[in-house]
Queue: 3 jobs
Job 1
Amino acid sequence: MAQGTVQVTHTGTSRWRRRTGEYASLAAALEAAAEGDVLTIAPGTYRENLVVERAVTLRGPEGSPGSVRIAPLDGVPLTVRASAVVQDLHVEGQDAAAPALLVEDGTPELRDIRVVTRSATGIEVRGGGRPTVRRCTVDNPAGIGIAVLDGGGGVFEECEVVAAGQAGVAVRGGARPRLERCRVHHAAGSGLTATGEDSALEAVGCEVYEVRGSGVQVTGRATAHLTDCVVHRTTGDGVTLDTDAVLTLADCRIHDIPENAVDLRSRSVLTMTRTTVRQFGRNGLSVWDPGTRADANQCEIFDSTGDYPAVWVSDGATVVLDSCRVHDVPDALFVLDRGSRADVVDSDLSQVRNTAVSVSDGATAQLDDCRIREAATGAWFRDHGSGGTLNNCTLDGTQTGVIVTKGADPTVERCTVESPAEAGVYVSAGGRGSFLDCRVTGSGGYGFHVIDGSRTTLRKCRTERCARGGYEFAESGTAPGTGGPVVEDCTSDESGGLAPPAAPEPAVQTTGHSPGLLGPAPGRTPPAPVSEPEQEPRPSRTVLGELDALVGLESVKREVRALTDMIEVGRRRQRAGLKAASVKRHLVFTGSPGTGKTTVARLYGEILASLGVLEKGHLVEVSRVDLVGEHIGSTAIRTQEAFERARGGVLFIDEAYALSPEDSGRDFGKEAIDTLVKLMEDHRDAVVVIVAGYTAEMERFLSVNPGVASRFSRTITFGDYGAGELLRIVEQQAEEHEYRLAPGAPEGLLEYFTQLPKGPAFGNGRTARQTFEAMVERHASRVAQLPEPSTDDLTLLFADDLPELP
């Protein structure tokens, strides 16, 4: 595109300026223009470095967006130092040391400008610059998208950073911009970042997503205020605060975060109001270090995708949850380390797979008027110096309501534990605790179970309908000064007062079918397992044929056949009186979800049964939640029970790396691993164990557990399916359900699977099946409108039935 001319419309009052002028360069036009003049730029490419120092209007022709390119070979393409209006320009820069558009002073208005550049910064505001930037876009894969520096400010409305090689928006050096309804995505650094004393960022109605780093990062005494903003699909933390940072989140939504949704450290302060946090891989809210504080009011944290506590408070930090909801998470609240504190008021903690509230290492937690529902453990005060208060709380549908161990000393007042599967309150290993006016109803075990001479105080407590009894005090009496519990004015529906102390008995029942920590109720015989009729194993040739029929997995099939051949030849050599090579049958399966690991494990078990290596060949699939218990000693029991269920077959442990998290210092997963290794050694011929998970995570798991690694003979890697293999799965699904692919549909499916993002959420075979199901639903919506559909109408799936790409 050649350079055009510039039409200058003069508005001055001098006679010699009462005319318009046309100039061959932008520099000449700017030199001739006076305050208030309008410079209309003809379409073309201008290799000039423009400096606007008067309050003029600089614009491209109406109705021709992108037709005017400001594209010098180096330097800053466009510098604004006055309260000018600049609009409808396409700015391109090539200087890695300079911005593409620089505002240094004044209050200019920048409208509908597209910056496509490979510069240090797309748009940079500094010093006295206070622009209003509307509907501008920045595409700068080499540097920062928008930078506001050195005391600069301004308002950015409906702007978009479509790509950035570093941060999407960077604020530092005391700058104070405001973003309204902006979008920042595909940045190689943080989406929004503010750093340095007196720096402040305000964002309203903005969206940050698809960034390779933190969505929002505030550090070094900077402040930020986000209202009605969305942060999602990052590769790092959703929101990060560090070193005296201050952030307010109001009515925000943070989701689809693989790491911590919100992470605070080093005396940072966070205030969250009416904000939701969901689908996070580590902690929903993570707070560290003395002086660091997070206050959450009317917030919701839920739907964890990892195996970490939703709220983590450690190293002397403080968290306040007021009228909040935490649900559908592995653990709700963990408070660790002396000086750490959590205050929870009028909040709901529910659908918690493990522990709702865990307090350890000298930390403190205070819960007032809270509701804990459907958790394995309601509250666990773990060790010496750990304590706090539960006041007027309800714990409903837990395995165990409150656990106190190893010298912990909480105060529990006016609380109710309803329908626990095991004990309402369990105190052991020298735990203390004071329970005042508390009630346990409908327990599957004891109401209050105090063992090991724990010096617990019970006053005005009551139990009702407890299967094993209201109170059990093992290895101690009830009178003061005996070293055991102090019990005053406590009652049970079994009698008017407290029953005499029972004889000591083990805290953990180790019978094969124990329902939990405290074992079955006295006088109750556990039901015998229902036995199913034994079935003859299918011939190995038949099972191998089913394996061969699976789509793809060629390398996996070769590995399984090679292993099967080794075992078969070994058996034949033994029958011939020859030595047979020792073959370890335990396997490691690595790969992404949906690649057929469980299916192959099931077939492998059948093959071994057909060869007489295993008695039954059945598959028992478990994960961390099935093996790791919440009570001291219960993990070993769960692991033993899972191993027993798999006796004669295959024990398949999915996501086995979760048994050994990177921060495993306070985790019971190691106990499960140790128990499993011993069982594999003691019963080496009874069970085949297969551990499975993502490739990188399984490599780490095996590297940190040499005892586990030595038990496995080989690793089989399941690769992701290609587009053609996914198409074959859809074709199989269609044939199985009596559908047909119309002409053009296979090509449409190939194109669809080729373009489908292959990120962490990609499900391989599961994705193919979901695609088929979506096509069937769209087909049904279409055919339901036909008055008399033909057989072709009822069976043909077209390319138009494909769902939209995510």
Job 2
Amino acid sequence: MKSDIEIAREARKRPIGEIAAKLGLGPHDFLPYGHDKAKITHEFIGRLNGHRHGRLVLVTAINPTPAGEGKTTTTVGLGDALNRIGRRATICIREASLGPNFGMKGGAAGGGMAQIVPMEEMNLHFTGDFHAVTSAHNLLAALIDNHIHWGNALRIDPRRVTWRRVIDMNDRALRQTTVALGGPSNGHPRESGFDITVASEVMAILCLASDLADLQARLGRIIVAETFDRQPVTARELQADGAMTALLRDALQPNLVQTLENNPALVHGGPFANIAHGCNSVVATRTALATSDYVVTEAGFGADLGAQKFLDIKCRLAGLSPAAVVLVATVRALKMNGGVARADLGTENVPALEAGCANLGRHIENLRGYGLPVVVAINHFTSDTETEIAAVRDYCAGHGVQAVLCRHWAEGGKGAEELARAVARLAEGDEARFEKLYPDEMSLWQKIETICKRIYRADHVEAPPAIHEKLAEWQAAGHGSLPVCMAKTQYSFSADPSALGAPSGFTIPLREVRLSAGAGFVVAICGDIMTMPGLPRVPAAVRIGLDERGRIDGLF
């Protein structure tokens, strides 16, 4: 099998105008960025008038492991397969961040014969959306310090400025910084720091805004600091929302590309799946629903984080309702959840596999608790044995769901046709009775407890008095109806990344809460979650470069 980058380079891409025509776009409805990518215009989206006729399918997964699950690859393979069986399907995924690309994770465009192209551009600068988010975020940061320097009319307390700066790179040296050193002409010195761009509230806002007016309104609601009287200061009070919106005008337009099988894909936005909701943009999803029979999308990390946030934040705020859910698992990852070391995953081990299936079973139970039909996609690896595959199928049957073996990595859409037919049966039936996990009127603390106990299966949530006081303060200020965005490790249902499988009887330690008033949710941070990752000992960047023909090499 050729490498992902070799397969992507050999793709027979169609002109982007042909891909746009599949969605009903005319020549003036998209802005080409070269021959193989484009942005869909605000004008075209405005003409859709909120019309939706497509069915929304969410692809999620078991908790991620080093063994690999293949959620994006399955998303792409399913989209291609639905088109092969006669359904007009569009894929909606997030854009890739430069930080993980040059760090440990690598690119995010699928793999094997189930990829979205152009792969190199998508994983690097693409159409500049992340740069626009970085600029808009840092413009606001500059305006805060500038306001303090020139008299501080809003009486901002420099000790209580919460708005940090961002960069789209993993750089642990920037986590904590001191700004404005060097004398009075450089401003008022204070402690600050950097987050990675995908952790910016601006990124979350971009992905939840419905149009330019909504974008500016949300940007204006961002709380950046407190006054000496402990009153919140917003971006609107700093008169930053207009210029920020101008910087983000083009970035709000969804990016149109194609799969290896020349089917449309909207790749747009990229909020961090820990500190934010981890989904592609509402604008892209709604546009795809208005122009396709099916929309296949994914949510970050495992279902306990990604699907929960997709259903309780994105669907709640955007008025979306999925028709079916695909839960991705691999035999290898399930064996790792059952205690098998990574080096031994190629050896058949049915007892460990059955033990690891507890992780899969809990995700099935959680998803069905939302009233949604579920199908399990077994992402095939060549080391899988027939006995192991049968064991997964039997386990899923015992939970009342179908498990489908998928070979899209090796065969493209053809290898996922059985999955596509299973998804179509569920989505076109009448099983979906989507119910959110909690009502808007539930208190913020009760929402946190509900997620921790019903999704993670924790016995207790531990939080210091200051967190309870802050939540009560936000409740009194009118923010109590907001959903909660949990930030915890993606590797376990618990806050301990080493607790694989389906742990229970644990305590979730709540370290901090943040109000993302612009995005429209409250962030609850558990354990040691960081908003500025560091690079590993051997970062992916050391193997990335150009080959003798000037082509990008080493991304995959």
Job 3
Amino acid sequence: MLLSQLNAAASPLSQEQVQKLQGLVAELNPIQQAWVSGYLAANANAGALTGGVAATPAAGDAPPLTILYGSQTGNAKGVASKLKEQAESRGLTVKLVNMADYKPTALKKEKFITVVVSTYGEGEPPEDAESLHEFLTTKKAPKLDGVKVAVIGLGDSSYEFFCQTAKDFEERFNKLGAETIFQRADLDVDYDDEAAKWIDGALDAFEPDLKAQQQASGGQVVAMPFGAAAPAASQYTKQNPFAAELSVVQKITGRDSTKDVRHVEISLEGSDITYTPGDSLGVYFLNDEALVDEVLTLTQVDASSTVKLGDEELTIRDALIEKLELTQSYPGFVEKYATATGSPDLLKLVEDKAAMREYIEPRQIFDIIRQNPAQLEAQTLVDCLRKLQARLYSIASSQAEVEEEVHLTVGLVEFDAFGSEHLGGCSGYLARRAEEGCKVKVFSEHNDNFRLPANDETPIIMVGPGTGIAPFRAFLQERDAREASGKNWLFFGNPHFTQDFLYQVEIQGYLKSGLLTKVDVAFSRDQAEKVYVQDKLRKNSQEVFAWLEAGAHFYICGDANRMAKDVHQALVDIIKENSGKDDEQAEQYLKDLRSANRYQKDVY
């Protein structure tokens, strides 16, 4: 029987369960559906063999090592998963929990906690860590005397508040009485090796007490029945990307636009990469060869010199083109380059963090080298630089429609500085240097914090100005393929209607077909007074609130520093205006929406 034919009379499931199951299956590809089928069958068999109760990976009443993670792009979740795997390989009982799903009241029952958390923006916690991060500062937070904790943070040292959220968590746990059992690690974007070392060290610290508790309880680790495992992940990852064909790079802004936005199509044929609307694509790029040659000239390094990068040997020129960061500047580079060159000006900056931030803000790495040339050994130059990191882009397509393709909406980063044009690392490569048909290394990054409702009847409101339209194009393709009956409302903004209405024909087509119930556009420069998406939200205040009260999910994608904050404030004002709530109650309304996964952000 097809799932679409199920009804309450024909199955042991309730109608609500049928709807949830239909929503889940619609998100899965055939391989994932087959895995779920096998998992459920194994679980049912295990329940029958154990008197209806499936075995779980618990050890008697011994307290587990609870791993709490908060992840914005998936990196912290990945580290937390590796920590879980390593702990289980030592025979330790582990509980892995997303902070968004963790009940803070459970803290008083914990004995061993590890925190794996990222930081984004101006030292802010990721979305799924916000509630716990705040709870720890309230009077409701329990005393944690006797609790042992270890914290690892992921961040980007090019930002001022590097790994601030990890520092906050450790400080707040300590204030509540918890003991830090292993030194906190604050890791930069090139974190893999250091994370592996921290995991080993942290587990060495936890293992004696965990095993003593385990033995005292008389329990032992019980394996999952029938070897049930996690869903088969793609063989292609951040560490092992897929060499995909770049099929299309098409400019979708007008000739006179102040923005250069490209629609990019990449073929995934020959890979096992799958993705769900809301996910991101990691893209590795090649640095500009002309800039690489200039760097080699400025440092008087022979392009054919052989260098070591980890376990790999290659020429310095190839390393600079393919493997090392030359655009995004960060304090660590300035410090290492200052020491290597002995530059008095740079060494002075190292002593003044505020001056350092001001210095690197307008400069890319090659600017720093250009303005402070010095003769270096090839390996010394390599050692000053960090590994090139993939750039993440919100996926702008649904596999239900494009199958073995993935689409992106890429805004070219371009600006003039110090007398020359500057381009973003990846956006410059895709928009200016990469040719259609070439190979580009990619991997998918799942984002469980930005998902369509499982129930296709649920209405959704999408706010995506500029390239923030990307995931909502994917949402609309997916809902179209599912023949979802839920209402869809899109808010889109950009400077000019004639130059910057991204995917205009598609949006108007969805509006005509009825898939899009409403579209509100804000073209800020088409009239004397600037109009933004938050203004359009306020203009539709009563109807927006009615949708929220009817169960709508609300999504924001785009700039975190200004747009997302302005939209959030507009929502607070809308709730106050239509419900009589005050500021605190309106904020609580939004927190409740977040807790129910009805208020989600994909911001950068």
